[in-house]
Each structure stands twice: as C-alpha cells, then as structure tokens.
Amino acid sequence: MFNKKTLRDVDVQGKRVLVRVDFNVPLEEGRVADDTRIRAALPTLRYLLDHGAALILCSHLGRPKGERRPELSLRPVAPVLQDLLGERVTFVDDCIGPLVEAAAHSLGSGEILLLENTRFYPQEKKNDPEFARQLASLAEVFVNDAFGTAHRAHASNVGVAAYLPAVAGLLMEKEIRYLGQVLAEPQRPFVAILGGAKISDKIGVIRNLLAKADQILIGGGMANTFFLAEGYPVGDSLVERDVLETARQLVEEAGPRLRLPVDVVIADAFSAEAQTRIVDMGPIPDGWRILDIGPETVERYARVISQARTVVWNGPMGVFELPPFARGTFALAQAVADSQAQSIIGGGDSAAAIQQSGLAERVTHISTGGGASLKMLEGAELPGLSALLDAD
Fold first, then answer.
1. Which H or E run contains 302?
2. Which among 138, 40, 47 has a CA at the least distance from the CA of 80?
3. CA–CA separation, 188 vs 219, rounded Å?
4. Residues 6+ positions from 107 with CB-CB distance below 8 Å
5. pLDDT surpassing 90 at residue 370
6. Range(s) for CATH 3.40.50.1260 in the chain?
7. CATH says 179-378 is which class?
8. Which pLDDT score, from 0 to 100, does residue 352 have?
9. How do strand 190-194 and strand 342-345 relate by DSSP bridges?
10. Do 364 and 344 meet the contact criterion of CB atoms below 8 Å apart?
11. Is-contact 267 276, C-beta < 8 A?
C-alpha cells in the first residue's frame, strides 16, 4: 500500500520546488501530438501553485542517448502546458549550468520554469551524483510525479532525492494507490488480461499474478509462444523459442486459471491488406501468422470479464494498429467497459487501445506508465518510489 510522504506533507509556500514530471509525449512536426501526460500532471502543478510554490519542471523525452537532439527538445511542451494551466511557462534550453541556475533562483511564487530534456546528458540515465546534485541545487523541495519512470533509477527521479526533501506528487500517489490496492486486496473474482508481443516481458507478471488472480486471460503475440509450448505449430507467427520451457511450466503451474485463445485470426502477411481467416486453434500452416484472437475466444473471455469484480489489463489482444486485427482488443475493451468491475488499464499499448476504442471514460483507471505498472504487477520495487520520504 502507499506509505510515502506526498506534497501535502510539506510546506511549499515561497519555496522553489523541483517537480519531476512525465512529459515524454509524442511529437509530430515539432508539435505535441498527444497531451494526455501533460494533463495528468496538472493536479500536482495546480496544487503547488495554489500553495505559493515556484515550479521548476524537469522531464525526459524520447531516447536521445545522452546527446542534444533538437527534434527531442521539450520546447514544444511549454506553450501546451501554458494553455492548459493558464499560467506563463518559461522554457530554458538546458537543465543544469549557470544560465539555468540564474533562471531558477530568480523565480517568484507562482512562476514556472520548464527545463530542457534531462536525457540530453548521459549522466541522467547513469544516475550520476554530481548531475543529480546540480539539478537539486535549483530547488528546496523535490516532488516526483513521474510514475512512468518510477521503475528506473535515474538522476532526475532517484539521484536528486539524496539532496532534497523528496515527496510524491498527486499522480504518483494515485497510480500507486490503484495498482497497490488491486494487488493487495482485490475484490473477487480478480481477472488479469495479458497480451502484447512478448511473453519474456511478462514472465514475472504471470508468476506474481498466479498467486493472486482467479483467471488470467492470454492474448496477443505472447499467446503464440504458449501454443508452441503446448505442441501446436504456429506457422510464421512471432514466437520466443528461448522461453518455451518457461511457458510450459507456467501452463502446468496455472492449470485452468490460465486461459489461452480457442480460435484466432490468421493472415498470410503482416499487413492490413493481407488475406485473413478465422480458424480454431490447431496447427497453423506455414506462410500464415496469428495476428488476433478469434470471435469464440472473445465471447469466452467476455463472459469471464462480465463476472469479474476486479480487472487488470496489460497488453493488446492482437495487432490492433491494423484494422483487420483490432476486433479482439476492442471487443474486450467493450466487455471491460460494460462490466461492474473496478478496471485498471496498464499504460503503453493497452492505454492507446482503450483511448482508440473510445471507452476511456468507462474504465476506473488508465495508468500513465506501461513499464512501471508492469513492474508493480510483477511485485518488483520501484526505485523512484523507494527514494521518497516514508510517511510517519
């Protein structure tokens, strides 16, 4: 459960507050293409402004690999944030150094400074103490509101906590409370839906959920590895041969609680224009690949979901980016929306699929962090959370 101090536990009046936000947003032609993550930070930023703080915001964006890459600048975020907050946001095109220090130390209550991409420095991902110290020197309090990077030990979310009083923001608190509660005390039946391309990413999650969930519904590319482990040839489908033995063990350990698709949509190419067929699960011919779950599987999974009181979903059921292979994912999204269950959607592709299906308003919580929510479902520690002050 949540046992960390939050921004409500510190006095920020007249203080400079360094806020680690998750502004890792998609950019298209130099503009923000989706402002979901910026909006998610607004309650924390508004609270701090209302309580008299001066804000210094830091984030990463993309994977610049420690180099200054103009196309991954956070500059386009500033006007979007300014519009959403209704407050002036000043952008500075670095995150450490004399210019940044001068800008930060001249801030008054209610003023906002957005720093440049922290990953322009290789020291960020290395959690370099000197880089962290320079970032921390800009402020008097640290608020971590970037749940999306809580599973990484980087300078801007873990390192700075060694130099400043460090507390959670409102988004961080909300994410941990939802996922923590589900794992600690789920209302039953508790159903987990797991998809996505790779089983290797989710072995820890499946193992952890086997001890907690009443049913685990498998779909996506990861189902292919289970099929092959069960002795079904899968044609040209994506599989991970190096984890076949692990997949066999998981099926054995889980028994009837782990459910695999009974029918699938196959195609003769990885393309929206490919020929497709719906087939009962059995040997898949060479030249064909599994790209979605079939209608009978959807019906069976939907029945299980309709009886659930808690649903956690991480990973799509098929290649939902291509319309012919989106039906399984969107049909299950509808089933989750129609159910009475408390529903938690993992970030990443699952969140994108729910948004695309138009059902985002009808689920309980959509996580902003795919990797971090996976780590929580695995039962792993989140370094970005561990670094914060414990609640009294």
1. helix 295-306
2. 40
3. 22
4. 16, 54, 55, 56, 113
5. no
6. 7-171, 179-378
7. alpha beta
8. 85
9. unpaired
10. yes
11. yes
The answer to whether the CB of 70 falls within 8 A of the CB of 61 is no
Task: Give the separation between CA 41 and CA 98, rounded to whole angstroms.
Answer: 27
- C-alpha triplet 343, 352, 77: angle, nearest 5°: 115
Measured CA to CA, the distance from residue 303 to residue 292 in angstroms comes to: 18
Neighbours of 141 (CB within 10 A): 19
252 burial level (CB within 10 Å; 0-12, 13-18, 19+): exposed
Q: What is the pLDDT of residue 1?
A: 67
Global pTM reads 0.90
CATH second-level architecture of 7-171? 3-Layer(aba) Sandwich (3.40)
- Give the C-alpha distances (Å, rounded to integers) separating 93 from 54, 58, 84, 87: 18, 11, 21, 19
Which residue in this structure is represented by tokens 């269950």?
341
pLDDT at 369: 87
Which residue bears the tokens 């949509």?
Answer: 265
pLDDT exceeds cutoff 90 at 348: no
Give the mean model confidence (pLDDT) for residues 87-107. Answer: 97
Q: Is pLDDT above 80 for 289?
A: yes
DSSP state of 370: H
Amino acid in position 151: H
What is the Cα–Cα distance from 263 to 294, expressed in whole angstroms?
5
The stretch 5-16 carries a mean pLDDT of 98
* Alpha-carbon radius of gyration of the chain: 22
User: String of b and e for 84-117 (b: at least 16 CB within 10 Å)?
Assistant: bbeeebebbeebbeeebeebbeebeeebbbbbbb
In angstroms, the CA 24 to CA 38 distance is 9
Instruction: Calculate mean pLDDT across residues 22-35.
Output: 94
- Tokens 């059995």 belong to 282
The mean per-residue pLDDT over the stretch 318-341 comes to 96
Active-site positions? 37, 198, 348, 371
